[in-house]
Design brief:
Layout (H helix, E strand, L loop, with lengths): L2 H14 L2 H8 L3 H15 L4 E3 L4 E3 L1 H22 L1
Antiparallel strand pairs: 1-2
């Protein structure tokens, strides 16, 4: 999977407080968002989200990664606009 797309899914999930809202924002199925975040966690070897049946919470590493991912996505978006 494309790492930037996975980062977008992660940032959207955190920003929208859930997979379903992130999926609507991104225009993709909820299952794809979940799989992208799992792939991202596997690729970097860190759990980013603590999942329960009703909630998602950022881990400490997830909070740090979220800030970095937002900056990367902003830089990619700016580069594409140029």
């Amino acid at each position: 999977m494309d790492r930037v797309d996975c980062m977008r899914a992660f940032v959207a999930t955190v920003g929208e407080n859930g997979y379903a809202a992130a999926a609507r924002l991104l225009g993709v199925p909820r299952s794809k968002v979940s799989k992208q975040i799992q792939a991202l966690e596997e690729a970097i070897g860190v759990q980013l989200l603590q999942r329960t049946t009703r909630n998602l919470h950022l881990t400490e590493a997830g909070a740090e990664y979220y800030e970095a991912a937002r900056e990367v996505i902003a830089a990619v978006d700016e580069a594409e606009q140029r």
